[in-house]
ABC transporter
Amino acid sequence: MTKVLEVKPAIVQSADVLTIKDLKAYYVNDLFGVRREVRAVDGISLTVRRNEVYGIAGESSSGKTSLIKTLAGAIRPPMRVVDGSVNFTFGNTKIDVYAEPEKMKTARWQNLSYIMQGSMSVLNPVRRIKHAFDDFAYRHMGLDRQAFRQRVQSHLQKLGLDPNVLEAFPHQLSGGMRQRVTIALATVCEPEFIIADEPTTALDVLVQQDVLGLLKEVQGRLGSSVVFVTHDMSVHAAITDRLAIMYAGRLAEEGPTQAMFDNPQHPYTAHLIASLPRIGDLSIRKSLAGKPPSLANPPSGCRFHPRCPIAVDRCSKEVPEMLPSAIGGRVACFRAGEVSVK
Ligand SMILES: Nc1ncnc2c1ncn2[C@@H]1O[C@H](COP(=O)(O)OP(=O)(O)OP(=O)(O)O)[C@@H](O)[C@H]1O
């Protein structure tokens, strides 16, 4: 049995809120006249539905953070979107992120919010917590000061936080508390779309469970969509409805989370699941041979083929497309379904 955190998944509904089509985003550097491209996001298509938690998993450097920065329209040089599109639908408003950057600016905080890695980056260490709410949320809510403060206090209470945290400095709170405050900050405007990048990585497992429970509860109450990024598969098992696995800038597999854990179709998914600790199993977990490839010079064909235990000749020559999988998702593998989790 796989040891996972226990947080109940939400009901999945169907309208698409985010549609990404054949997205390519590269880091482009010119060094002494030599152009170097790191293909961090390389031909990704996916949709995220209303009221679902969509997970993105993959080893370090697989492109997870680059993908979510790209979808939030939060890219800076040397990163460039070289092809493809990102579209959001918020109520009746449609936004093409790269054709309509002004619309996207307005949507930020109101319709879309971002919980980043490490809560201290959004909470100024020398200012009280209340100022973070003033700085980020006040102008988006159209309330007078008093009504705004009341709204913030009642939101904190709904999340089980004492409104007195508003008077605290970040360093006076524990790591878990700070992350709860960050979730409160990201959700006070009741956004339809929340991006969470490794929000619980630095926390111990019990606090992590608490913070994940909170995020799930707010998501369920608001009916928001969440894109949740972490390399930790046990967290995906606990919180996500659907899961995408990234390998070397591309999607390897996507599908309903539970079905992927029960019956992974891609050998890389099977490897990630097999590396999780299991209750009562004292055997040493086998790691995959080799390292993730350089995205400046990725392998030909399927990028996973040099490390794949079941690769055949074709895998080094042809790029596998993402095609419907046997478990109601999509998979990019010529030998899909021929692996099992041992
Ligand atoms: N500013 C940059 N310039 C050049 N390459 C970059 C830059 N930022 C990231 N990269 C490269 O892009 C690739 C993808 O990185 P990214 O941070 O998106 O991966 P990740 O899956 O989020 O990793 P992690 O789990 O470690 O955060 C990596 O090869 C990384 O070295």
User: Anything to note?
Assistant: The chain is about 25% helix and 25% strand.
